[in-house]
Amino acid sequence: MLKDFETKKREEKSSLNAEISELQSKLLGQQQLLMKAKLPVIVLIEGWSASGKGSLIKEFISELDPRFYHVESPKVLPESEERFPFLYQYVKSIPVNGKVTFLDSGWMENVVRKYLRHEITKDEYRHRIRQVNELERQLRDSGYVILKIFLHINKAVQYDRLFELVENPATEWRVDKDDLWQHKEYKRFMEAYDEFMDKTGDIAGWHVLDGSRHKTATRDALKLLVQRIDRAVQEGRYEGITSEEDFPLKEMPKLAEVDLSQSMDDEEYKKELKKLQNRINELHNIIYRKRIPVILCYEGWDAAGKGGNIRRLTYALDPRGFDVHPIAAPQPSEAARHYLWRFWTRLPKSGHICIFDRTWYGRVMVERLEGFCSEKEWRRAYHEINEFERMMTEWGAVLLKFWIHIDQDVQLERFTDRENTPEKQWKITDEDWRNREKWDEYEVVVDEMLEKTSTRNAPWYIIESNDKKYARIKTLRIIVKALEKACEKHFRRTME
After folding, report:
1. How many CB atoms are closer than 10 A to CB 78?
2. How confident is the model at residue 306 (pLDDT cuts 50, 70, 90)?
3. Which of 100, 192, 238, 323 is the most buried (most CB within 10 A)?
4. Reading across the β-sheet that carries 41-47, which strands appear in turn?
5. Exposed (0-12), middle (13-18) or buried (19+): which is 92, by Cβ within 10 Å?
6. How far apart are CA 214 and CA 334, in angstroms?
7. How many CB atoms lie within 10 A of CB 480?
8. DSSP H/E element including 408
9. How far apart are CA 72 and CA 82, in angstroms?
């Protein structure tokens, strides 16, 4: 792309200004169309330092209603300072339906710069290329309009612009050592940018524009966005199809096959609980120092004992190092984005623990059964969830998923106890009883969920919870074993 790029001939300035003005007016008119069609738009502007990315964004937004767009300038932190997954800051910035986000540099600059600095390995580089493609496909399949632009200038033009900025006391702050390093390594960067665009252009194609011709680049960029929005409004939301990629799966039993007779007496329970909580407290200190992120996911039947299970875990933890996220129906701002967005934004920073009481699996359970998403959407979600969880484990997170399991008779006993105990009545709702009537339907979808999403890197653990004491101890044992394994793995890696 860049090696063969030809600089455009200069065009008449008055003609370009007229075209730009007309396109800006069209773009302003499209804002209402986007809101009506509930189409979210992401415009990613990458390019060389001093190629005019900021100026181009200024031209994009000059006539737009500021209530309906957002400009984001993500930072490229050194890998040693990153506390969240690679794609976290970009997913966090995606717009709600009907609005536009402009990204002043993004995942390309992040990956290329870190790879050329040897902050990430070749394998990590390949992982991030794949993750970019997965994210773009997931967004596209959920109806996002994605436009990716690269502003290209040659080395001589870049030198002149950087020199001009540095020589002016009012603008010298805009040039940092990374800009100068990029100029010095221009050839290496060009090869890396070309490779990145080649490997990430299938879902949303790249458009290389001439950054040395500001007016021409502005006209071409506006035209691309106006045309892309027109096409999206006419075509409506894109309905993606489920990917054919296979994930290595762990064989899971059907819920009906699980033996729920396990139990534990009080004396053994108290002894084991104290021992496991002490060990978890020790491990919490280690994972904090080693910056190992931990994600714990709890799903299960109503009244299965998720809350009590979580309480026995959190009692052992430093309250400054964990968060519990009870997940209910999405808020309007959450429902207006990709369904995984509200979980991305709740991820822990490295060294911390986050506990999800209900999770992204609502997509293939309650949202599926209650008709809150289409069949194509919930079928696609199995693969999207597996991709999301693989991103988390490639980041280095300990990811554990628990299905807290009881039978119908035990659930009825616990529902009745809640209704008859004043201090517990807040725990029981009409919706709980309504869901109980759909037990058989839920059992079918849970079995399918376990079958399709219990991967080797993120397996499901079925926790037999007819006896709550047994369930709590089994869960804590699994957590201790996983944390010890993660700490040992981290130690081996640092010794290599």
Report:
1. 10
2. very high
3. 100
4. 69-72, 100-104, 41-47, 145-152, 206-210
5. middle
6. 37
7. 18
8. helix 408-420
9. 18
Sign (positive or negative) of CA dihedral 209, 214, 220, 221: positive
Domain coordinates in residue numbering, the chain: 13-235, 255-495
Q: Do domains 13-235 and 255-495 have the same CATH topology?
A: yes
Could you give the percent of the chain with pLDDT greater than 90? 90
Q: Are 484 and 294 in contact (CB under 8 A)?
A: no
Which of 454, 46, 10 minimizes the C-alpha distance to 219? 10
Q: How many CB atoms are closer than 10 A to CB 331?
A: 9
d(CA 343, CA 79): 23
Instruction: Measure the CA–CA gap between 145 and 133, rounded to whole angstroms.
Output: 15
pLDDT of residue 242: 67
pLDDT for 182-219, tens place per residue?
Answer: 999 999 999 999 999 999 999 999 999 999 999 999 99
The answer to whether residue 244 scores a pLDDT higher than 90 is no
CATH 3.30.1330.60 fits 255-495, yes or no: no
Mean pLDDT of the chain: 95
